[in-house]
Fold this sequence. Notes:
387 residues, alpha/beta, Rossmann fold, 2 domains, seven-stranded parallel sheet, seven-stranded mixed sheet, 14 strands
Amino acid sequence: MSKFLFVVQGEGRGHLTQAISLFEILTSAGHQVVAVMVGMDNEQNLPAFFREKIPVEINTFPAPSLVYGQTKAVKIWDTISTHARKLSKYRRSVKFLAQKVEQLQPDVIVNFYDMICGLYAQFYRPNIPVVCIGHQYLLLHQSFISLPNKQIDRFLLNLNTRLTSLNSTRKLALSFEQMPNDEQHKISVTPPLIRNEVKKITPESKPFILAYITHHKLSEDIINWHANHRDVEIHCFWNNKEFVDEWQFRENLTFHQVNSEKFLQMMKMCSGLICTAGFESVCEAMYLGKPIMMVPVPNHIEQQINAWDGQRAGAGIADTEFNFNRFIEYLPLHQNVSDKFKAWQGQTDQLFLKNFEEVTRKEAEIYTFKRGRGNMVSKYFRRAFGF
Length: 387
């Protein structure tokens, strides 16, 4: 039995649900998750469902996240400048993580795309494996075909991805479809991590559209479209604490606070899903055979690539706006790929356990070699950056 420490990037629900899925896989196989560290700006934003599903010690710490301001779009340069001013706070987060590792003595650190963990691995050079998990690592794969444009945005995204995986032992890249591993970049391609609740669902189809938005400002687009199409029933999940759990804006248009179980029940019954192109929501809908329209948050290059990749994998269609007219026309044309997707996803437990077994078995060989020179390098960087 091995002891695992999870470090999770807490923005949105995607990496949190991945952590829940891996927790289920590891504990079912007899392993132990000793604690979970969640990087987020505000501890109050940690969803209640996460604490319910992972009944271990959970700590939060300040970590970088995207900046939207008062707009619907990601503000790239505001994100960079905002977090540049918070470097001292993030230094304290790295130290806090180092203290927890020293206290808990895990056998493996699992990093769900958190930059603080990447900085910790670079500066402290732990003598245990650090395994990174995320769809974003697929973008570093030598065979991955990405968007043909947006070169600066793609460079910044890949830079961020590399920062999260500094000094990592292995990167587990979640993919819609099966691909060969990229040994040169230490990337193992794995199926998506999907919660057990999703796998137990028997889908139905009722005449309403489900929507999920990661930034509540995007609700304006849905409200404006629905003003002229009031006969279409829409249920939209958002994270806007200024409203009650269930707010009926008008007949046939209801907004719900993010609630994991409620969302899955509506996913089970909806005729289709329109969502900002987060990886996990798309995967859950693919598993259930639901048609999807993926609408990336403006200026969110990662979601733009997700939409591009999801459309190519047969999940549904991509658009730059909440074009419900186009989606309604698409619904009867959708080709269900759930059987193919389930066959790939069915290998998840085996492949994840195999990867963790390999990194723990090779621990002594890998880290004994690194210990001398690695600690000299890390000591230099820690002194330079105030650790």
